[in-house]
Amino acid sequence: MTIQVKFFASLREKMGVSESKIESVATAGDAWDLVTNHAEHPINILVAINLEYAQFDSPVNDGDEVAFFPPVTGG
Amino acid sequence: MSIHISEQPFDPWVEITQHQKQSALEKQFGATATFIGSMRDFNDGAKVSSMVLEHYPEMTQRYLEKLEQQAHQKWDLLDSLIIHRVGDISLADPIVLIACWSAHRRAALDACNWLIEELKHNAPFWKKESRQDGERWVENNTDGT
Known about the structure:
The complex is a heterodimer of chains A (75) and B (145). Chain A is an alpha+beta fold. Chain A has 2 helices and 5 strands, in the order βαβαβββ. Chain A has a 5-stranded mixed β-sheet with strand order 2-1-5-3-4. The chains are: A alpha+beta (75), B alpha+beta (145). Chains A and B meet through helix 1 of A and strand 4, helix 2, helix 3 and strand 8 of B.
């Protein structure tokens, strides 16, 4: 099983990738570290796990989808 | 209750009228509150010519459905409708429509206000503006004043 990691908007452009697959990790923050090679994350970056808002220290399970994105600006 | 994410321009007034007819509530509601957000030609002191609206499709749909359900739990609504554009947006295009129907005005007005504020703060949409000096991601929503 793998974990799918997604980036959106300005973060997607900064990372140069919209999604990536990784092997098991413990938390969303571990997923960030693995995909970005421990890049420092902007303080206002938001996290979602399986389409629900979460935190960097939230646990991640095999098969989960973890997303990172900047503050939202819809409406 | 209805949510629609649209890549095509929409006419909010037509949508409101059609929804009212289809929802079979025409003789029950006494109040309709609406919010329509449209694209301005300026932001942060700069001229804006167009924009692209990106979103996180699966999360957007789920988030807006949950938001609409919460509004119906908090207020005595008869029906509600949320439409949000994504993709290429032109000047003056409607971006978002929120409409709430209730028997009396307070529920519809308060729910409509709550829905647009929650959407703007939490729904995963992002605007990228085209300005004279190039493209720029909008970093924060205005506070609404």
